[in-house]
Design goal:
Helix content is 82%, strand content 0%.
Length: 108
């Protein structure tokens, strides 16, 4: 939990100078609140609770898979087709993570 708090404080400090350039419109604050709760707070709470039950390698792979899955979510929700290279990279990374999970499960 402390590392998550420290990471968010560092991100806040890095972004603070840009906050005064102008804020979002009034409707933008509602969207920022929803993103803060559903995209950050809930996943951080779940990840912080789950990390105690994982090996270090597994705990590091989970955050690395999230950006890889973003093109897939965009494809499924918006219909935007990712570039061939992005699709190949996504498949390779997910395959490597799946193999790691299978090896880890087999060794337990």
């Amino acid at each position: 939990v402390q590392s998550v708090i420290l990471g968010n404080l560092l991100a806040t400090a890095a972004c603070l100078p840009f906050m005064f350039d102008g804020g979002p419109p009034s409707t933008g604050w509602a969207y920022l609140f929803l993103l803060g709760v559903f995209q950050l707070a809930i996943p951080y709470a779940l990840y912080s609770g789950a990390i105690r039950h994982l090996y270090a390698v597994e705990a590091a792979v989970i955050p690395m898979i999230e950006p890889v899955l973003n093109p897939l979510w965009v494809f499924f929700i918006v219909g935007e087709v990712p570039d061939f290279r992005a699709a190949v990279g996504c498949v390779l990374i997910l395959l490597a993570a799946g193999i790691r999970a299978a090896i880890s499960a087999r060794s337990r």
